[in-house]
Amino acid sequence: MPEGHSVHRIARQFARNFVDQTVAASSPQGRFADGAALLDGRRMTTVRAVGKQMFAEFTDDVWLRVHLGMYGAWDFAGEIEADPTIAAANGRMGQTNQRGVPMEEPILDEAGENSLASIGAPRRARVHVRMSEQTTGLADGDADFPPPVVGQVRLRLLTERTCADLRGPTACQIQDPDEVLASIAKLGPDPLVGDPHEGEDRFVAVASRKPTAIGLVLMDQAVISGIGNVYRAELLFRARLNPHTPGRDVPVELLRELWRDWVRLLAIGVETGQMMTMDDLSPEDHRRAMAHRDDRHWVYHRAGLPCRVCGTNVVVEEAAGRKLYWCPSCQA
Question: 0.90 exceeded by the pTM?
């Protein structure tokens, strides 16, 4: 499931390529035909991400809410203009100790993509876009536009230059302004939405009353928005916090530090396109981490491997149907 940084990157690309454009909408799959008909011919006026959900406004107060869920993905084709707030990251290595390390050549990840200039996760092989800081261009120079529909496309949004296909979302629905406000009201604070200090107070006030294990609290989108399996494991390890500790038993200052660390990591994720959670990396190690997931996390996906700090084997267990990775020594 894409975590919060991915949805923010996708929303920023929609803002760059679709906002202020009249959009043709269709549902090739047929499951969203009525909703697509309401969007067709309207102008997209704004788009925002809140946690793992994206909300796009069209003229006449018509809104589209999309939650990608476990299997959803946006595929883009045509002319893709890079969001300068993302593309500008080409010269930076993040907002931790890696800041300022020069990029002599693009770093490709396991999918063969330069995540600094990609649209955002989930980045799949079928997403072929060329994005750069200074240019725009066709994703596939000799391909017809718009591209043929491939597979089960729930919703296609099309401008004169750019195509976005939505597949497999958990939620894709039309909402009016009151329904949008109600949907957002159900979500916990997001560091990139509103005042982060107010968000911190909201998170602490709710989490500090929870009898639920903090490892589950962090995954509750009604308590805090955008955290998924990867960030959950990494935040808890960075805090040296046992994931089974009830939220109400976690010291308030430690809850505040969890929030502040989420602020930091989310910003790095949006900037780099990767869930980078390790600090103090050398330039060489940072390049390796940008290219390979196994080199960018403390405990996530490292079950049975020695903890990078103490050498104890990292364990994995099921927690509310999701895999929870943690170090039983560092997080005792």
Answer: no
